[in-house]
Automatic annotation (TrEMBL):
<dbReference type="InterPro" id="IPR037120">
    <property type="entry name" value="Haem_peroxidase_sf_animal"/>
</dbReference>
<dbReference type="InterPro" id="IPR010255">
    <property type="entry name" value="Haem_peroxidase_sf"/>
</dbReference>
<feature type="binding site" description="axial binding residue">
    <location>
        <position position="392"/>
    </location>
    <ligand>
        <name>heme b</name>
    </ligand>
</feature>
<keyword id="KW-0964">Secreted</keyword>
<keyword id="KW-0479">Metal-binding</keyword>
<dbReference type="GO" id="GO:0005576">
    <property type="term" value="C:extracellular region"/>
</dbReference>
<dbReference type="GO" id="GO:0046872">
    <property type="term" value="F:metal ion binding"/>
</dbReference>
<dbReference type="GO" id="GO:0020037">
    <property type="term" value="F:heme binding"/>
</dbReference>
<dbReference type="InterPro" id="IPR019791">
    <property type="entry name" value="Haem_peroxidase_animal"/>
</dbReference>
<dbReference type="Pfam" id="PF03098">
    <property type="entry name" value="An_peroxidase"/>
</dbReference>
<keyword id="KW-0732">Signal</keyword>
<dbReference type="GO" id="GO:0004601">
    <property type="term" value="F:peroxidase activity"/>
</dbReference>
<protein>
    <recommendedName>
        <fullName>Peroxidase</fullName>
    </recommendedName>
</protein>
<keyword id="KW-0408">Iron</keyword>
<keyword id="KW-0349">Heme</keyword>
<dbReference type="GO" id="GO:0006979">
    <property type="term" value="P:response to oxidative stress"/>
</dbReference>
Length: 616
């Protein structure tokens, strides 16, 4: 079923090849025959984050005059300039757990039961296949949520501002991965295929191809184990709109501070192989290359490029002395601030409990934001590889577009409806329900992800396998990190009865439970759609992203922040109002994340008052 052609690859400094996940999937699924990789620039082998300056004077970062964010996040922290910069390593909240202590995936059970004959050397048991965990612990169930598909889309849009893991290409001769099933568990190389049971409900192959994430360093030891690399600036800085490096930013920029667009004010034309182009005239270009993954996501990218241009056009009229650079940077700063504010004041309260919002100081303050230069704003593995993947549970089974039901499997990576029916995509992203946040996930993503004639994938199995690839410790280890009691038995009270049974059927030991299934199986915390461990990991990461960002929108540093009046104006804007404005809607829910919320006339919502930016 899966015959794989790996196409072109790019050599980096160290001779390995990297690409992002979408590219990898596109290739593995044979999405496009003439698929070629976007050029990947040579990558620093060693992160420079060990470098620490003890004084502002010694730091290479400017610290006077009017300051704007760099494209890649460099120098946001003037003493640790590479913290949060694109191409840096993921940080870890909990020490890595590799099966060889260095970099081989976590594959062995803690259980001692696998010695068949007592006189022989005990044999270590393997963990269950990630596909088996997916089938047993995350079966499909059709229950819709009070939340709209827009909540799922915002989560993904934010995610694509924060994290994209660099993927290694399998070595020549090793690919396709599945040809080497015999030794799969012992490999510390590019391939780590997911075994499939012959009785699998859907897949008829022996295994699913899986390419390991790129190791940031080739010098791996027990004290310096394998680490993964984030291709994005980790800051919530609208890098999904503007790119995570200067070249991408330059490519996306138009004249006079504007962003480039294409006919009918859509995103600019990108490279042919970046999407399924069957019925679309072209693929788009955007700050993050996963822009086509779902129509609502493409719509949000379109929304913020349009909004950028709207602001630039207004400021240009009033500040005739500003050149294109100034117009661009001032607007980019407003857009990043609005993205931060929507995320922390509109989105997070929908998913985290009030207690978590308070504990991690995630609520908007009153002129009392304190930047903390010793907080590392990089993304943690446990967040990217498990916790923030909670959004996958929300992916709908279908979407209504132009009054027709379209199964999600036909929407992945397919931009055709953006060209034909953008307004309908937006309206239905707002009014269609998301799937309920529970441990079940739809077959659209567990059997039919990125489906083509060549085959398809299981996203849940990938989440679990990715965790093992990254040496992510088990669920219980993270419970300990969060000061939560560890599960000692499968019938621990944080799981409901059916989840207990599913976990027990799948794992030999409670200490084997992978983070993703464990956290997904937890019962929700009061006032949250997520359990306590989710609340802790997400709370901690969003706290780091806020306290460790010297350009945080509420900063009182006059060189990096806004004036009082500007901030006041920013605090009037809402996601609903922006969507109304850029898509010319008539009515919308005040809360775009709840599909049943009462709709109001768009005219009633307050927009961004740009007068505080006018220079006269
Ligand atoms: C239409 C919906 C979506 C599809 C088809 C999709 C697909 C994928 C795929 C294929 C991966 C890579 C898996 C791997 O090999 O490790 C991934 C990663 C990820 N997804 Fe999704 N996803 C969707 C929505 C979401 C949503 C709503 C969220 C919520 C926040 C989310 C969060 C993540 C995260 C955090 C990662 C890891 C990113 C990285 O560091 O590389 N995804 N997704
Ligand atoms: Ca970013």
């Amino acid at each position: 079923q899966l015959s794989v052609s790996l196409g072109t690859s790019y050599d980096t400094d160290d001779g390995t090849h990297i690409m992002s996940l979408t590219m990898c999937f596109a290739q593995l699924s044979g999405m496009n025959d003439n698929y070629t990789l976007r050029e990947v620039k040579p990558v620093r082998l060693e992160p420079v984050s060990k470098r620490r300056y003890t004084s502002v004077a010694a730091s290479p970062c400017p610290n006077s005059g009017r300051l704007f964010r760099t494209a890649d996040g460099f120098c946001n922290n003037i003493l640790r300039p590479s913290w949060g910069q694109s191409l840096e390593r993921f940080k870890r909240y909990v020490k890595a757990d590799y099966s060889d202590g260095k970099g081989a995936p976590r594959i062995y059970s803690r259980s001692k039961l696998c010695r068949k004959e007592p006189w022989l050397r005990p044999r270590r048991c393997l963990l269950p296949s990630a596909r088996t965990v997916s089938i047993n612990v995350h079966p499909p169930k059709k229950v819709t949520a009070e939340h709209s598909v827009m909540l799922m889309q915002w989560a993904q849009f934010v995610n694509n501002d924060l994290t994209a893991t660099a993927i290694q290409q399998p070595e020549e001769g090793v690919s396709p991965c599945c040809k080497n099933t015999k030794k799969i568990h012992r490999r510390n190389q590019g391939c780590f295929p997911i075994p499939i049971d012959p009785a699998d409900r859907f897949f008829k192959t022996e295994c699913l191809n899986f390419v390991r994430s790129r190791a940031i360093s080739t010098r791996i030891t027990r004290t310096n184990p394998r680490e993964q690399q984030n291709l994005l600036s980790s800051y919530l800085d609208a890098s999904n709109v503007y790119g995570s490096d200067q070249d991408t930013q330059d490519r996306l920029r138009g004249d006079n501070g504007r962003m480039r667009t294409s006919a009918r004010n859509l995103l600019p034309k990108g490279r042919d192989g970046d999407c399924i182009r069957k019925n679309a005239p072209f693929c788009f270009d955007a700050g993050d290359d996963r822009v086509h993954v779902f129509p609502g996501l493409t719509a949000l990218h379109t929304a913020f490029v349009r909004y950028h241009n709207y602001i630039v056009d207004d400021l240009k009229q009033h500040n005739t002395g500003w050149d294109g650079d100034r117009l661009f940077q001032e607007t980019r700063k407003i857009i990043s601030a609005i993205l931060q504010r929507i995320t922390y004041t509109e989105f997070l309260p929908e998913v985290l409990s009030d207690a978590t919002m308070n504990k991690y100081k995630l609520k908007e303050g009153n002129n009392n934001y304190q930047y903390n230069i010793s907080v590392n704003p990089s993304i943690a593995g446990g967040f990217a590889t498990a916790a923030f993947r909670f959004g996958h549970t929300y992916i709908p089974i279908l979407m209504v577009i132009d009054d027709k039901e379209v199964p999600s499997r036909e929407l992945f990576n397919n931009p055709q409806f953006i060209f034909t029916s953008l307004k309908s995509v937006v309206e239905n992203t707002l009014s269609d329900p998301a799937q309920l946040r529970d441990r079940s996930l739809s077959e659209e993503i567990t059997d039919h992800l990125f489906e083509t004639a060549m085959g398809s994938f299981d996203l849940v199995a990938f989440n679990i396998q990715r965790g093992r690839d990254h040496g992510l410790p088990s669920y219980n280890t993270f419970r300990k990190f969060c000061n939560l009691p560890e599960a000692t038995e499968f019938n621990s009270e944080q799981f409901d009865q059916t989840a207990q049974k599913a976990l027990e059927k799948t794992y030999r030991s409670v200490d084997d439970i992978d983070l993703f299934p464990g956290v997904m199986a937890e019962q929700n915390e009061k006032g949250s759609i997520l359990g306590p461990l989710f609340n802790c990991i997400l709370g901690q990461q969003f706290s780091d992203l806020k306290l460790g960002d010297s350009f945080w929108y509420e900063t009182t540093d006059s060189r990096r922040g806004f004036t009082r009046d500007q901030l006041k104006a920013i605090k009037q804007v809402s996601l609903s109002q922006i969507l109304c404005q850029v898509f010319d809607l008539n009515r919308i829910q005040k809360n775009p994340f709840r599909h049943k919320d009462k709709k109001v006339r768009c005219k009633k919502l307050t927009g961004l008052d740009l007068r505080p930016w006018y220079e006269h």
